[in-house]
Write a structure and sequence with these properties.
Helix content: under 10%
Amino acid sequence: PVHQTYTRPVYLPDSSGADTKQSIEKDFINQVYTLKNGDHLVIARDADYLLKAKTYLLQKLDLPFSKEKLISYFAYEASRYRIWRGTINGLYCFDSSFHFLFKVSDKNINNIFQSICEYSPGKYITGMGSGEGLWQMQLTHNAINFKKITSAFDHKGNITIVYKDSTNKIWIGTQDGLYC
């Protein structure tokens, strides 16, 4: 920064604000994800937070898995303003107001969702942990279906990122490198 000034979050002037301030200052931040409305979702070890872009107000989110102390890997906002949260115990879906919609888990996979990207409306590529590789996840009106995409990434450890660039290429980051 040119002027070496920094802006800190602001908090609600009540006990919840004091709790949020104490919590974030002791937490480990995994990701800051900018939502389509401009606000930022802060993914941390102990909680998730919403940082308002215009006011810098930081609030702790009370999500279904918050009390379970699950390891959280990522946040991703897809079409239809669905917000996905990947954890060590499944994939959670919320609307843009953070109302819980559903949890994704499948008995045929390990449910350690470490990354996701939407490659067309309702169709996703998920990167799994513990050597499970890449899967396609498709949402239909009444079901969520999984299909193995390739076995090329099985047993390569964790797929830490799946990213679709502006040319529609899918990039995959693993513990042993970057692939396209």
